[in-house]
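Exercise 7b. Backbone tokens:
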């Protein structure tokens, strides 16, 4: 099935491009991975913080710090 999302904010697009570059993946593969993770997620995904961290693909503490800083700076 093909899906289409309209009116994606430019900042979101930029973050997705940065994420795909960090992970050396195409946007198509990255978006499919995000959708598959979301579809498997139990109703209360915060019940397992370790799974959430794994789903983000973080491998070091500095990566999470960078993500938090980037999120704060975007506000």
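Sequence design result:
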């Amino acid at each position: 099935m093909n899906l289409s999302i309209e009116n994606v904010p430019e900042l979101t697009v930029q973050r997705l491009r940065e994420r795909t570059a960090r992970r050396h993946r195409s946007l198509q593969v990255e978006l499919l991975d995000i959708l598959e993770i979301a579809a498997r997620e139990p109703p209360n995904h915060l019940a397992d913080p370790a799974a959430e961290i794994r789903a983000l693909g973080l491998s070091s503490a500095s990566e999470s710090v960078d993500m938090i800083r980037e999120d704060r700076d975007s506000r």
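Instructor comment: Residues 10-73 form one domain. DSSP finds four helices and no strands in the chain.
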